[in-house]
Amino acid sequence: MSFQNPVFIPGPTNIPEHLRKACDMPTIDHRSPLFGQILHPAREGVRKVLKSDNAEVFIFPSTGTGGWETALTNTLSAGDKILAARNGMFSHRWIDMCQRHELNVEIVETQWGDGLPADRYEEILTADKSHEIKAVLATHNETATGVKSDIAAVRRALDAAGHPALLFVDGVSSIASMDFRFDEWGVDVAVTGSQKGFMLSAGLAIVGFSAKAMEATKTGSLPRTFFDVHDMAKGYANNAYPYTPAVGLLNGLNESCKMLLDEGLENVFARHTRIAEGVRAAVGAWGLDLCATSPDVYSDTVSAIRTPEGFNATDIVTHAADKYGVAFGVGLGEVAGKVFRIGHLGSLTDVMALSGIATAEMCMADLGLDIQLGSGVAAAQDYYRGHALASQKDAA
Amino acid sequence: MSFQNPVFIPGPTNIPEHLRKACDMPTIDHRSPLFGQILHPAREGVRKVLKSDNAEVFIFPSTGTGGWETALTNTLSAGDKILAARNGMFSHRWIDMCQRHELNVEIVETQWGDGLPADRYEEILTADKSHEIKAVLATHNETATGVKSDIAAVRRALDAAGHPALLFVDGVSSIASMDFRFDEWGVDVAVTGSQKGFMLSAGLAIVGFSAKAMEATKTGSLPRTFFDVHDMAKGYANNAYPYTPAVGLLNGLNESCKMLLDEGLENVFARHTRIAEGVRAAVGAWGLDLCATSPDVYSDTVSAIRTPEGFNATDIVTHAADKYGVAFGVGLGEVAGKVFRIGHLGSLTDVMALSGIATAEMCMADLGLDIQLGSGVAAAQDYYRGHALASQKDAA
Amino acid sequence: MSFQNPVFIPGPTNIPEHLRKACDMPTIDHRSPLFGQILHPAREGVRKVLKSDNAEVFIFPSTGTGGWETALTNTLSAGDKILAARNGMFSHRWIDMCQRHELNVEIVETQWGDGLPADRYEEILTADKSHEIKAVLATHNETATGVKSDIAAVRRALDAAGHPALLFVDGVSSIASMDFRFDEWGVDVAVTGSQKGFMLSAGLAIVGFSAKAMEATKTGSLPRTFFDVHDMAKGYANNAYPYTPAVGLLNGLNESCKMLLDEGLENVFARHTRIAEGVRAAVGAWGLDLCATSPDVYSDTVSAIRTPEGFNATDIVTHAADKYGVAFGVGLGEVAGKVFRIGHLGSLTDVMALSGIATAEMCMADLGLDIQLGSGVAAAQDYYRGHALASQKDAA
Amino acid sequence: MSFQNPVFIPGPTNIPEHLRKACDMPTIDHRSPLFGQILHPAREGVRKVLKSDNAEVFIFPSTGTGGWETALTNTLSAGDKILAARNGMFSHRWIDMCQRHELNVEIVETQWGDGLPADRYEEILTADKSHEIKAVLATHNETATGVKSDIAAVRRALDAAGHPALLFVDGVSSIASMDFRFDEWGVDVAVTGSQKGFMLSAGLAIVGFSAKAMEATKTGSLPRTFFDVHDMAKGYANNAYPYTPAVGLLNGLNESCKMLLDEGLENVFARHTRIAEGVRAAVGAWGLDLCATSPDVYSDTVSAIRTPEGFNATDIVTHAADKYGVAFGVGLGEVAGKVFRIGHLGSLTDVMALSGIATAEMCMADLGLDIQLGSGVAAAQDYYRGHALASQKDAA
Q1: Fewest C-beta in 10 Å: which of A22, A234, B26, D354?
Q2: How far off is chain B from A320, nearest CA to CA, in Å?
Q3: Residue A218 CB-density burial (10 A; 0-12 exposed, 13-18 middle, 19+ buried)
Q4: What is the rounded distance in angstroms from the CA atom of residue B279 to the CA atom of residue C24?
Q5: Domain count, chain B
Q6: Average pLDDT in the B204-217 region?
Q7: Which residues form the Aminotransferase class V domain (chains A, B, C, D) (predicted)?
Q8: Residue A135 β-bridge partners
């Protein structure tokens, strides 16, 4: 197995040296004060990354999917009505989870490539006079299509409708990479994982609950044990978990938050935008389109790139792995075979991004697409040269 | 934080150098064939460690508790009747989980320190003519009391009663350290985690399902998504997971199985017995009793040691951490304050065990117990000298 | 400190994951048989990499410079005459070392950028009827100029002259990356270090002695202790060193040799040629010249690239580090300010090389050179696409 | 290979987790300012550990032996007269090195087990009216015999004699573990390595030169290149080395100094004394003697323990390795077979020390010596209990 080249999948990301070492920890007693010295700062760090003053942060040995299950099972009861748009594979899977847990989902079918339709949400919420809808789901960044949505607009829709539903946001591929404002947007549950913006291995579900969401846990009657936030809260009060925590990953999360906050969240977001702009410049130079239908929904963590009609975009991914040892992402669901994805989140420099762009070019040329070698690279170089960070040190 | 001394908690264990390195992996594409080269051998290795030819092995980014939830939610339906003995904190918690998931548990209260009452199980199962009991829970090794139970006897009870209930075994602190026979004992679901006999960090729930248990998943209607074994099986068929796997830990698990199988399972078990016998010799020399009420239930992975009436056993644990930087386990639940625990599972040599014994002696003497310094050490030395392994190399 | 980008200095190289882990070793007893299990295979591996059946391999905790000192002090005596060409900084420094140790060097001044003048060597050796010349120095690859020399031709010069002088070869930046034939070329002492073709950190001087060189150690009277090969040989016979060895690095060297030999030396060399050809294609596309004056002396491990008259080539190196976080090599000695160097040895993929080429382009454009962005990248891409390795796995 | 047990050799020591990670560094450009950020603080840290304000600190990719060679070759000339006592293997080897480099050594033969005879030094120096003696060698801690010497007394001898000879001190197994006062004792060259008190792998020779020693380098004419301090000083002025430095080890050295200085040197020394006292209590309980002939020369870093007449002490070392996987040190030179050594320097806790003592007991009992199991352990426990550190945290 060669580990020479960076990965360009939309998570897990390349892991910074410092975080690999933070995770690679000898065993400590996870019921000792030592553990508390890792746990509490990690939770506090996540809270700051969420831009929240009071969110209750819970961290499970699990993944983002487990985070979704935490959101649903702690706050809702069988038969509860949910409002959700489906505009990609991850929003689709969250809807599927609701249905498995006997929730009643009103689905707003949305074109894959578009953002969440906040106006439709407003109409539906306004019409729901009896407030049957208990929660609104919003996928901040659709990893499958490279589309970001306007969560502030969803909040405005709720407010315009005067609707008390909880707002659940999937921030798995946005939090810690793109601007996310838990308090300002009135988010009730935010869900993410360790392996995206936090630049760690997969293995942690990270969730933030608002006071309102915590209140809902008192009535939410869906069965749960592993993902029960009350057990977790009780454990935290004793520097402990209700079961054995993933101590090394938590230590990594603590260090990751320190790195992000030291760099400054706005700098982190600007860095992601910068890298993404270079990739988008390359896509333009290739004469290709993004799956995302307009610039306002372009994701800064992943670009899904449409290939010409009749071409199987998945071949690029297979070819890149086989011939060049580079990992891109395939298209999923409705856009399978139609797009390939370049992940550009987490720990990535312009120099690394250029190697991914150069590889994509070689693959497309190898597979017969009419791509001029060096064209995308030149466009990205031009962008990166002209938009250098104040200091590369910030991008550590 | 000092990491100088070994830990003597009953899991997570000390992690062997080789496994720490195996887990500390750069990011790879978890949807690529590379990942299959880790996943499939790891599952096959676990199957061998379970002593099973055909068990379906599922590995979740979770913990043993998540493994329990996997067992229950995939095979059972609300209102199903369960038979379970309560003889320690972990059997207690499994019963509690059943109740949260709306299962109807018939509890056999058993003295903490005794093993599972297979005879009572047989009576109850025989009386259950209509086969309302859908599953029997059995905690192979009660980590709280240092008590191992006779799973073969539970199987015999089921067979004697001619009862078709599923047999679920909590092997969290026994599997890969003590003899476990999935096929021979007719186990239907075995549950463990990465952080005990497999000598890794916490973060994986590891379960084995029999064909009969897999059949039960077709009717089990408890809600589940994260722990759904069908999603998992579908993923495995494509070298993948239904969500992002904990690749490094899986790589570690694969290497752990190789280490265990290279050493030979019977050698692994003999090594655990040997280390445990030394600890028990020390306990005898101190004039103290184990919580486990008879030699046939002595656990080879953890010893819970009763301290004299009126003495708070938890003080030993606190004092050891504060003064000597050594971690022992406290008593839990009914035996809180009455016992302290020495974990002796996983990667531990006699030399390390002696340092734990010596530390316990110093702590007890410091706290005023009438313990002769060196007495327990001498008893353990005597045992270890006379029962050397054929080769220390086996104990790597 | 960011470690995101590959380095493009001509050593130390990027270190493969596997070798970093091999070097990061806990302490073992360096006087035990365990140590022998590392030492002897490492020496045997180096011998194979040298393409020698019988060379005595010595490994010192030192660097290539220490290897040179080992060669000289063990075989020569004060006043001995040495023949050496000076065609770059490293040959210059070896000559300087001879003079410090009171050797009498006949220097053949050679243009920086040219290879060793085997014909001049032959003339001088032929003229040396009384065989006053005791050793001939030959720098196989001048790291400063990116020039490789024809060692077989030097051997032919010695043979044509019927001259018994020892042949000492500096293979620091060639061995394990470019074809090197200790036995076939009649090399008497070969010198290298751990941080180039062996892809490790600096810290080991690695030398091979022929039987003839070993014979010379009996009369060589230059003072030496640390670098004494007899002490070393005596130690090796007892699985030991005359002082404390660098065990982790030796373990890494052993693993490095396994990697190289598993890949196959000819494949290793072909891989280096391939990466180098891509870099040279880029240089051509930029309209620049190499310092190396003709294709037969192009080095496959480092390219020294001439920049236009009046431009300070060192600015590229400084700018790349400051703005892009990428390390190239500066020009040294006579070519300081006139060239910058791209190291392309050791563990490097085409994808990584492209990122270095792209960075160099950005720097040159930033600094006002007339370089078309993407031009060098496109030329290299074209080469790499058409000259894929049979398997990327070989390039691990 | 098992790495479970601590090592009890007198260096290399057990390496703290934090230092292993500091050394395991990716490649950086060793000619960049980044490198200076490691190099200069490391040198400054060493200076403080030496308790010197102005010593010039040089760090070579080498070992303590290379440090000795640095001391001699930079300051002396062929034929110079040296005064040295021989009271163990390491002082013997330093004398041997002097002789190889054509220095004229006046040897004061001293019983192995005794400290340096400062009074004899004074007599000889006083008698040397013409000041032919250019340097006095003093081994601060004889690792072979576990004997520390009084360097202040040697300084007094020089001063009493009014003699201008340089004072060279071998502090390989004392510096950073036992009190060492470069300035106060008027040391001219102090020599140590990375693998003892600094708790790192072997691979660095660390030397401090006084202003007087630096002055002597102007006339010292012994041939040298690799160990030349002028080349080194010139390199340092440019954030560089005259060759490729061992960057990771230097980074480790920098972190090691921080750890030592954070703990406080006096605390570090007290910790070593404490661990050593426990070992000595055990030796007393066993009824055995130290090689060191009186308490004032007991070393706090290593104890050489005499075994009864007719018993081969080396068997203990072999047996411990084979049966228990524990490394002790053998006797060397005159005391080969007569002593075995327990190293107790660097990163070691009382808990670890007890495991070494317990192992030694088992070995001696196994080999037929009349040793009561647990007796040494009890004596050490008693000492450690009563002499706890203020905080274990200091012993990280």
Answers
A1: A234
A2: 11
A3: exposed
A4: 33
A5: 2
A6: 98
A7: 30-318
A8: A82, A166
Note whether C143 and C278 are same-domain residues.
no
Give partners of D (≥3 CB pairs < 8 A).
Answer: A, B, C
Structural domain containing residue C231:
17-262
Q: Is C355 among the domain residues?
A: yes
The interface predicted TM-score (ipTM) is 0.97
**Residue among C239, B253, C204, B351 nearest D3 (CA):** B351
CA–CA separation, A201 and B250 (whole Å): 12
Tell me the C-alpha distance between B391 and C163, whole Å: 57
Q: Which two tokens stand for residue C250?
A: 């030796």
Q: How far D317 CA lies from chain C's nearest CA (Å)?
A: 10
User: A154 and A81: one domain?
Assistant: yes
Whole-number average pLDDT of chain D: 96
A388 & A362 share domain: yes
Which pLDDT value is given to residue B388?
82
Residue A264 is given by DSSP the state -
| Residue C101 maps to a domain | yes
On whether both B222 and B286 belong to a single domain, the answer is: no
What CA–CA distance (Å, rounded) separates C172 from C192?
4
Which positions in chain A touch B13 (Cβ < 8 Å)? 27
Residue B167's DSSP bridge partners are: B136
pTM of the model: 0.97
* Residue C390 banded pLDDT, cuts 50, 70, 90: low
- Which of B193, B228, B262 terminates a domain? The answer is B262
The CATH number of the domain where C291 resides is what?
3.90.1150.10
- Please indicate, yes or no, whether residues B339 and B224 belong to a single structural domain of this protein: no
| CA dist list (Å): A230 to A70, A216, C305, D171 | 11, 12, 65, 58
Best residue of B3, B15, B17, B251 to probe chain C, by most C CBs closer than 10 Å: B17
- What is the rounded CA–CA span in Å between residue D69 and residue D67? 5
Strands B166-170 and B133-139: parallel
Contact B3 A26 (CB under 8 A): yes
In a domain, C346, yes or no: yes
Nearest CA in chain B to C27: B17
Sequence-distant (6+) residues with CB within 8 A of C318 are: none
Does the beta carbon of B284 lie under 8 angstroms from any beta carbon of chain A? Answer: no
d(CA C247, CA C389): 34
Contacts with D11 from chain C: Cβ below 8 Å: 244
Q: Which two tokens stand for residue B5?
A: 């001394």
Do residues C199 and C173 touch, judged by C-beta distance below 8 A?
A: no
On whether both D245 and D306 belong to a single domain, the answer is no
The DSSP 8-state label assigned to residue C298 in this structure reads: B
- Per-residue confidence band for C2, with pLDDT thresholds at 50, 70 and 90: low
